[in-house]
């Protein structure tokens, strides 16, 4: 599979099979995040791999839609603002770095036949409390991981994405 085929294959999975994810696959997905680039190579991100049913339920409750509870694994992506790079104008690159690592992870998952979905519309303060995080850590996103109960449509980008000429200006 070429990179572009893989990028087209990944889709937001909101329906998961009741099937556990092999630990080696979780490790491989995390490895893809580990090798991601980051500003100054500061790597200000980490992940909490939530498999425990009780904790998973608590984390899923920070999001208002019930489908998240069905995912067998939830990766909580954390950004560490105490180690992220700040440009001289003060811009904190924590979110950018964390997003790149997550993107690596979701693409690796797709290659392994696993579904993921970015979830940012959750109550991050509540999640912060549940995981007893220090002030400088931010719960950036919840990434459910599991076998999808649906097939993605790799052709959907034709209509669901802006056309290339709108995206890039050549000068
Ligand atoms: C930063 C970010 C936040 C997102 N937050 C949510 C979310 O809270 N809930 C959800 O169902 N989908 C969420 N999504 C998924 C997007 O809706 C989805 O990526 C987009 O509609 C494109 O569809 P596709 O991923 O299937 O290609 C998020 C995606 C990104 C990149």
Based on the model shown, name its key terms.
single chain; 171 residues; alpha+beta; NADH Oxidase; 4-stranded antiparallel beta sheet; binds flavin mononucleotide
- SS element count, helices: 7
Quaternary structure annotation: single chain
> Mean pLDDT score, rounded?
97
Sequence stretches where pLDDT stays below 50 over 5 or more residues: none
Kindly report the name of the CATH homologous superfamily: NADH Oxidase
Bound ligands, named by name, code or SMILES: flavin mononucleotide
Biggest β-sheet: count, sense, barrel?
4 strands, antiparallel
Number of strands: 4
Report helical residue fraction: 25-40%
Shape: globular
How is the largest sheet built, in terms of strand order?
1-2-4-3
Remind me, CATH topology? Answer: NADH Oxidase
Approximately what portion of the residues adopt beta-strand conformation?
15-25%
What is the C-level CATH assignment? Alpha Beta
- CATH architecture tag: 3-Layer(aba) Sandwich
């Amino acid at each position: 599979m070429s990179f572009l085929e893989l990028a087209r294959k990944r889709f937001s999975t909101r329906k998961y099979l009741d099937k556990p994810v092999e630990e080696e696959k979780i490790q491989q997905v995390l490895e893809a995040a580990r090798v991601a680039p980051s500003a100054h190579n500061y790597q200000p991100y980490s992940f909490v791999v939530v498999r425990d049913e009780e904790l998973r339920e608590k984390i899923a409750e920070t999001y208002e839609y019930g489908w998240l509870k069905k995912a067998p694994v939830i990766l909580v992506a954390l950004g560490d603002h105490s180690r992220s790079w700040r440009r001289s104008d003060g811009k904190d690159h924590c979110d950018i770095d964390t997003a790149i690592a997550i993107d690596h992870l979701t693409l690796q998952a797709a290659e392994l036949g696993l579904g993921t979905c970015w979830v940012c519309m959750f109550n991050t303060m509540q999640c912060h409390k549940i995981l007893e995080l220090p002030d400088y850590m931010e719960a950036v996103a919840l990434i459910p991981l599991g076998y999808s109960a649906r097939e993605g449509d790799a052709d959907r980008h034709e209509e669901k994405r802006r056309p290339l000429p709108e995206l890039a200006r050549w000068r």
